[in-house]
Write a structure and sequence with these properties.
The chain has 24 helices and 21 strands. It is of the alpha/beta class. The chain folds into four domains: about 100 residues, Nucleic acid-binding proteins (OB fold (Dihydrolipoamide Acetyltransferase, E2P)), CATH 2.40.50; about 110 residues, no CATH class; about 190 residues, P-loop containing nucleotide triphosphate hydrolases (Rossmann fold, 3-Layer(aba) Sandwich), CATH 3.40.50.300; about 160 residues, Rossmann fold. Helix 7 crosses helix 8, helix 10 runs parallel beside helix 11 and helix 20 runs antiparallel to helix 21. The radius of gyration is 31 Å and the shape is globular. The chain starts with a helix and ends with a helix.
Length: about 675
């Protein structure tokens, strides 16, 4: 067994791990020796030395010498075993759950002094220790300070320390994977030294040490290596290059009433270059809300069709899929034959679409996940476009790329700006085109905040907007009232507004079926209703140019990025748009700060950076869905310099065409086995 195989071997190979202990480790999701090493301590516990019973304080950890005087082993199941102990004529109980009588008699023999270590409790006018962490007949063997771990019931600290110390004895010196110049930054400390240090020292006091930082960097580096390797593998796939000339594209652009921005032009040039090359395209088109990503992707689709290929556009929701279909049908019907397919498409229509798709009578098929069912057979699929990519992780992206075959390019779009330190983590497997500038005709959205007690003022404002022929989105967090969360429901708000605006208000939410949603959206599109009450189902992609006002209730309950997405549903026409953020009176300082950031900023990338600092990377849109586990130690805010260092190292490796095989073991170690096995 080599060094890396030892770390990835099952914990049942460790001395002291039997079937019972194994099942307890599994409860904590510890399966390998590497998992065990990454089950890090939470803090260092300092233990008070020998204390008198009357001096104990509830909740504190103590070392105390006692004499067991009586056993109490109940014959009723699930009741704990009790040992009554004494010190200086004052009694104290030691309580044991899930412990055998024989074991208790062995560690607490009657009338013999023992030293006990544990947290003091108090029950029925008497101090007690429940499942004490250490019991020794020789007090010199007591560990007076130790690390605190998150353990499951039945797994004692003594047992855990015994097992992890057995691992330390056998822990091999691993072949160094870090380049010499990087290793020098961490004063040449090894991986083995570092991981042992984190278990033996107070983890909170060594966060600025080279041991800690070295392990942080290893995590980031392994993650970046994986995504870089996926990108490298995709680039090696040879495909038939697509052929189309600029005249066709220019003809389409001449029909527009507007000009593309410089960022849109550059993004389109990169996409066209990828499609014309003999390397498979795997590109992310990322842009802020309202930056014009959709039009760029549609032009790319028409270029692919002009080259003799079919295109599949996958959206995260049926509403967005239907909207794309209508947009393409109304504006590009002379250049392509589009169709839409969702889970709600009836059997007869579905059968017709499947037949036409396989016979090349459909150029663009738009839909949701149903586009990639096994029954679907494309005549000649050449481009996959995935809208709102943050719904799909690394594994899903790779599977979609494989599904299209070698000649199929992949373009994914996201309106969720990601801070730079997170870019490589989430999108490192892809080439990236950014659209930061917005179309010239887009006016900034004026953002206001209003206390909900001023609802009458808001209603008057809405009446004025309706008089000026504007439409309104009114967003509520939940569909039904909840006893746990104080959110105004969409249904209650709809009924309230209906009393004021009669039939000029309607509602849409996720529990409605497709036909109901389509009917309401058509009424809103045709201006038969003025106010659309909604849940956050409108967050992604919905486009109604005449909707110039959005009101968001309980705005303090949302993250900044989500509020920015919602705000982006308005301001898509030529008129000035407004966003009103409603909040409750008991607003926290943190929530007030978030609302002020949004009021004073309309740059999604800056807002994402602020969101990262306020809420942490785990809540950033896209990270939880990215297919990657949360880092054990690395944090994009605290370790920004190490993220940048890792990114530089990856670019250096890619530039020099370095052999990735050197790093395969490192990637495997950091729990990427499910992906790495497919790409090694």
């Amino acid at each position: 067994m080599n060094d890396f195989e030892y770390l990835l071997s099952s914990i049942e190979t460790i001395k002291g791990v039997g079937k019972k202990t194994l099942s307890l480790f599994y409860k904590k999701k510890i399966f390998t020796i590497f998992d065990l090493l990454w089950h890090l301590p939470m803090a260092k516990i300092q233990i008070n030395e020998d204390t008198e019973i009357e001096d104990l304080q509830v909740g504190k950890v103590y070392n105390i010498k006692l004499i067991p005087i009586k056993y109490n082993f109940p014959r009723i199941r699930n009741l704990p075993n009790k040992v009554i102990c004494e010190k200086n004529n004052i009694k104290l109980d030691c309580i044991f759950f899930n412990s055998y009588e024989g074991y208790i008699k062995k560690i607490l023999p009657l009338n013999k002094e023992v030293s006990i270590n544990g947290k003091a409790g108090y029950f029925r006018n008497k101090f007690q220790f429940v499942n004490p962490s250490q019991v020794k007949t020789d007090s010199s063997n007591l560990i007076l300070d130790h690390n605190k771990y998150s353990l499951t019931e039945g797994l004692s600290l003594n047992k855990f320390n015994q097992i992890i110390n057995n691992v330390f004895k056998k822990l091999p010196e691993l072949d160094e994977w870090l380049p010499k110049d990087v290793l020098k930054i961490f004063d040449h400390v090894s991986w083995k030294e570092s991981i042992i240090k984190l278990h033996r020292e107070d983890i909170n006091s060594i966060k600025n040490s080279n041991y800690y930082k070295r392990l942080v960097f290893d995590e980031i580096f392994a993650n970046f290596l994986l995504t870089s390797k996926i990108r490298s593998k995709i680039k090696k796939i040879k495909k038939k290059n697509k052929t189309f000339d600029s005249n066709f594209q220019n003809k389409i652009l001449e029909n527009f009433k507007f000009k593309l921005t410089n960022d849109q032009i550059l993004a389109l040039e990169n996409i066209n270059k990828d499609m014309k090359s003999k390397q498979k395209m795997f590109r992310l088109l990322q842009g802020d809300v309202g930056s014009g990503k959709t039009i760029v992707s549609v032009i790319a689709a028409l270029n692919a069709i002009n080259s003799g290929y079919q295109v599949a556009i996958m959206a995260p929701t049926e509403i967005l899929a239907t909207q794309h279909f209508k947009f393409i049908s109304e504006n590009f019907k002379y250049y392509c034959r589009p169709e839409v397919l969702t889970s709600k498409t009836d059997y007869k229509k579905r059968k017709k679409i499947l037949n036409e798709l396989s016979n090349n009578k459909i150029d663009i098929l738009i839909g949701t996940h149903s586009l990639f069912q096994d029954k679907l057979s494309y005549y000649k699929l050449g481009l996959i476009i995935i809208d709102e990519q943050h719904k799909f992780g690394v594994n899903q992206r790779k599977k979609l790329s494989d599904k299209g075959g070698d000649d199929c390019d992949v373009l994914v779009m996201s309106a969720t700006p990601i801070p730079r330190t997170m870019m490589m983590t989430i999108y490192g497997d892809m080439d990236i085109s950014l659209i930061k500038t917005k179309p010239i005709n887009r006016k900034p959205i004026k953002t206001y905040s209003k206390n909900e007690i001023k609802i009458k003022e808001i209603i008057q404002f809405i009446k004025k907007e309706i008089f000026n022929k504007n439409q309104i989105f009114w967003v509520c967090p939940l569909i039904n009232e909840s006893k746990k969360i104080d959110h105004q429901s969409a249904i209650t708000k709809y009924k309230s507004l209906e009393k004021i605006f009669n039939d000029k208000v309607d509602i849409i939410h996720g529990s409605m079926d497709k036909n109901e949603k389509d009917l309401v959206l058509k009424k809103f599109h045709d201006k038969k209703i003025d106010i659309l009450v909604s849940t956050t189902v409108i967050e992604v992609g919905i486009d109604f140019p005449n909707a110039n006002v959005i009101i968001i209730e309980n705005s303090n309950k949302y993250g900044l990025s989500q509020l920015h997405q919602l705000r982006g549903r308005v301001g898509r026409g030529s008129k000035e748009a407004k966003c009103i953020l409603m909040f409750k009176s008991n607003l926290s300082e943190n929530a007030r700060n978030r609302i002020n950031i949004l009021k004073n900023n309309d740059d999604g990338f800056k807002i994402a950076e602020e969101d990262l600092h306020i809420r942490g990377y785990g809540d950033i849109l896209g990270f939880k869905q990215s297919g990657l586990k949360n880092y054990n130690l690395a944090d994009p805010i605290q370790h920004k310099d190490l993220f940048i260092l890792a990114e530089r190292q990856i670019k250096k490796i890619e530039k020099n065409n370095f052999n990735f095989k050197k790093y395969n073991k490192l990637i495997k170690l950091y729990d990427k086995v499910s992906v790495i096995n497919e790409i090694i």
